Amino acid sequence: MRTTAQHIEDTPSKTAVVSKALLRSAELLGLTARELSTVVGLSEPSISRLKRSEGSGGPLTGKSYELALLFIRLYRSLDAIVGGDDSVARQWMRTDNTMLGGKPLNRIKTIDGLAHVLAYLDARRAPI
User: Fold this and answer.
1) Residues 89, 79: Cα–Cα separation, whole Å
2) In a domain, 2, yes or no
3) How far is Cα of residue 75 from the mean position of the Cα atoms in its chain?
4) Cα diameter, the chain
5) What angle do CA 97, 114, 57 make, to 5 degrees?
6) Which one of 13, 22, 101, 102 is most buried, counting C-beta atoms within 10 A?
7) What is the pTM for the complete model shown?
8) What's the structural domain count of the chain?
9) What is the DSSP letter of 56?
10) Has residue 1 been placed in a domain?
């Protein structure tokens, strides 16, 4: 039987889980390190360090952590809408959308734009 200390050591931190999900979401949507760094407010070298550490936490704190959570939500909503077809999701991110006022990839580079795209996807995912 495991002791509590052993269990805690084996449990990944929230930051590590979010980091790994962020990197995987960005990869599946075809975002470059530069594009991802703009979305979550980190430098490109910080994204590279995050990748090298295989999502074990690292530079995701405060605002960048919260933006990462929003980006992961965006990915999950879009994934549900396109039925898990990552090529369609990648194409959607890079195609002009009149409802969003531009390409979603360009819109999510600001906090307001990220929130707007996420609200749009949430509304499309669960219409009333």
Assistant:
1) 7
2) no
3) 6
4) 58
5) 135
6) 22
7) 0.86
8) 1
9) S
10) no
